[in-house]
User: Which sequence fits this backbone?
């Protein structure tokens, strides 16, 4: 499945998923998911700063061991005292009980005189009080009181709430410009404490007139906490008087939290927009980008709700939209991971098919992979393999796929490169662009395959100069045999070998060109990588070696110079597979002296049979050098160096550099063991050990 088809499929899956989620979250399953809205609102509202009722005062009568008659009498006495002492207004939130057939006390007739008195509309006092209104303290399903209606339809008549009735009775009131006649609900957040006085102190004359003068007094029989009727989003337990005081303060100070009609419309529109955004922009992205986008969107939604609530006192419920986007993010993250796993499996199957010479199924599998430089390299190699099987039309099909999928910019970046003076102009069909470097065995050039304008790294070996006449034929055979062995390797961390040939008395190997440098610069003590990074890069190298060894290919020259790394893209690849073998039997010219003996294993120095364990020894030396900037075995001449490598143990490095855990010493001791059988069983085992160390190394 190509990239466009996969992205189209993932978009349809994501759109279908979020559509179903929308229906569930805002439909039948709304009671289960509304908790997300409540949670976000509670977290913000509990921290919202509310203005207190500046002239508020709560007086509570202790009803313990008092008969209804006694309570009724105390209400009358306190009401009279409040009026005499010049109270601004009196709100009796919990009037004394009066039997349905009972007569009202005589003092009730004075309720509407001088100082206004407000009572609940469901009490007999409402007939004689100044104004009345309903009290609503019904909590939501989770037991929290978050909203309070402003109006209530009763017997065909719209009645105001008690707090609104008090406000409407004030001739000097200033209406909140944010609220309209259709805003029939305000929301609660927290309760700013107002002073309390005990009724017993007032009746006993222990309260001065100044303490009651010009006050808004709430009179009830509810002691704080003990007689609480509701819990606010802030977690505070409040009484009916405290609820009314909070609502009254918010209305009068124009601090009410409201949800206008346009907000309710927006709460339906936002989830739909998020569903579209998730379906359009998330499929096809990298898993890290999906996580970042999901996190950024959720944080943005929460910030929007918080800022709207704290600045404009407008409630927008965006908790459920957060859940919708989170669900979409998890789905696309999973789909991308499935695609990556499918691509990895397809890449492995394609590599196996190509190694077995089954090029058609290999082509089918590689087309299922996500287009990358590694896939591009192996596809190029596949086109050459089709050519060798004399199937030019299939080779052209592979090249056409590469051009169509990867584009011309991926296939070539050599148009800006100039010619290098002194370099051959062409070897085989490859056009030389410039010289990249030189080693003991020859030079490496950046060349271009004119068929698809693709850059390649061309390793050039003067084979006729390196070998005597009687050895030249054997060297040629070994060259092509080793190039063919290296060409079978298809791994993300191994430079792909495309082609090998001979022209102008020069043998050449065409390889994948990787922009970057070798690890050699990072062995400078002033440019060392972080310990965790060095361990991770060597773990990747160990994985690649494990793959090569399982294919029967040993590198023989693992060292920083042969490990290429592109730091920008975090891509690592081993180069020169199969090249070192060419000089194994010709030491008089390019043997130990011209090679890199400080990275060689004891058996390699002693000309014993070399296995994959030798590569692991060399990797251990490379890791040592990357961590501390020097190799573990140093000497002024070859003889002393050979003695140290074959007899001495390396110096522990955990105490030589901060951030290197002691477990690294154990790994290096095992990797640099003198006998091959004492080292790691394979590269995979060494990779696991290195990654375990990296978890405790500094980054």
Assistant:
């Amino acid at each position: 499945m190509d990239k466009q088809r996969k992205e189209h499929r993932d978009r349809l899956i994501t759109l279908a998923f979020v559509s179903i989620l929308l229906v569930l979250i805002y439909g039948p399953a709304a009671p289960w998911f509304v908790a997300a809205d409540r949670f976000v609102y509670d977290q913000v509202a509990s921290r919202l700063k509310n203005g207190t009722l500046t002239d508020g005062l709560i007086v509570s009568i202790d009803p313990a061991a008092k008969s209804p008659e006694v309570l009724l009498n105390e209400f009358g006495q306190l009401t009279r005292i409040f009026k005499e002492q010049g109270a601004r207004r009196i709100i009796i939130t919990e009037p004394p009980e009066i039997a349905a057939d009972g007569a009202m006390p005589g003092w009730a007739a004075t309720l509407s005189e001088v100082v206004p008195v407000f009572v609940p509309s469901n009490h007999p006092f409402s007939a004689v009080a100044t104004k009345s209104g309903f009290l609503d303290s019904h909590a939501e399903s989770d037991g929290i009181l978050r909203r309070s209606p402003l109006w209530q339809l009763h017997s065909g008549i719209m009645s105001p709430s008690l707090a609104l009735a008090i406000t409407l009775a004030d001739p000097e009131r200033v209406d909140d410009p944010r609220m309209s006649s259709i805003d029939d609900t305000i929301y609660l957040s927290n309760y700013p404490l107002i002073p309390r006085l005990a009724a017993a102190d007032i009746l006993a004359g222990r309260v001065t007139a100044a303490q009651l003068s010009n006050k808004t007094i709430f009179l009830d029989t509810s002691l704080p906490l003990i007689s609480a009727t509701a819990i606010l989003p802030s977690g505070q337990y409040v009484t009916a008087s405290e609820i009314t005081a909070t609502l009254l303060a918010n209305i009068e100070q124009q601090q009410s939290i409201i949800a206008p009609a346009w907000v309710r419309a927006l709460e339906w529109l936002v989830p739909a927009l998020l569903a579209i955004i998730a379906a359009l922009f998330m499929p096809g992205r990298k898993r890290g980008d999906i996580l970042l986008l999901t996190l950024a969107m959720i944080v943005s939604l929460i910030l929007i709700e918080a800022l709207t609530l704290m600045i404009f006192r407008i409630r927008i419920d965006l908790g459920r939209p957060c859940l919708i986007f989170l669900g979409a993010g998890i789905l696309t993250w999973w789909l991308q991971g499935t695609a990556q796993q499918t691509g990895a499996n397809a890449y492995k199957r394609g590599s196996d098919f190509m190694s077995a010479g089954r090029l058609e199924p290999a082509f089918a599998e590689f087309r299922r992979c996500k287009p990358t430089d590694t896939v591009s390299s192996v596809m190029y190699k596949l086109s050459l393999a089709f050519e060798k099987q004399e199937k030019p039309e299939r080779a052209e099909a592979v090249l056409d796929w590469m051009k169509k999928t990867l584009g011309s910019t991926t296939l070539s970046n050599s148009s800006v490169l100039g010619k290098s003076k002194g370099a051959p102009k062409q070897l085989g069909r490859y056009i030389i662009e410039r010289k990249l470097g030189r080693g003991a065995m020859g030079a490496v050039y950046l060349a271009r395959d004119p068929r698809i304008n693709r850059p390649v790294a061309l390793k050039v070996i003067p084979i006729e100069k390196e070998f005597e006449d009687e050895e030249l034929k054997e060297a040629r055979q070994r060259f092509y045999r080793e190039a063919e062995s290296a060409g079978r390797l298809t791994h993300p961390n191994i430079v792909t070998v495309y082609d090998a040939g001979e022209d102008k008395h020069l043998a050449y190997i065409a390889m994948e060109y990787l922009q970057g440098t070798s690890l050699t610069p990072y062995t400078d003590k002033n440019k060392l990588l972080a310990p965790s990074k060095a361990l991770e890069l060597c773990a990747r190298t160990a994985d690649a070696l494990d793959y090569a060894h399982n294919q029967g290919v040993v590198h023989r020259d693992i060292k920083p110079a042969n490990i290429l790394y592109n730091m920008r893209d975090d891509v690592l690849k081993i180069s020169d597979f199969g090249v070192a073998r060419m000089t194994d039997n010709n030491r008089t010219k390019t043997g130990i002296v011209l090679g890199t003996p400080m990275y060689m294993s004891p058996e390699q120095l002693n000309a014993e049979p070399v296995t994959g364990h030798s590569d692991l020894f060399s990797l251990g030396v490379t890791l040592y050098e990357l961590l501390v900037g020097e190799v573990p075995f140093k000497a002024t001449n070859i003889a002393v160096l050979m003695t140290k490598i074959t007899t001495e143990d390396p110096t522990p490095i955990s105490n030589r550099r901060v951030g290197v855990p002691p477990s690294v010493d154990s790994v290096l001791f095992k990797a640099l063991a003198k006998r091959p059988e004492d080292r790691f069983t394979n590269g995979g085992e060494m990779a696991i050990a290195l990654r375990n160390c990296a978890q405790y190394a500094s980054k």
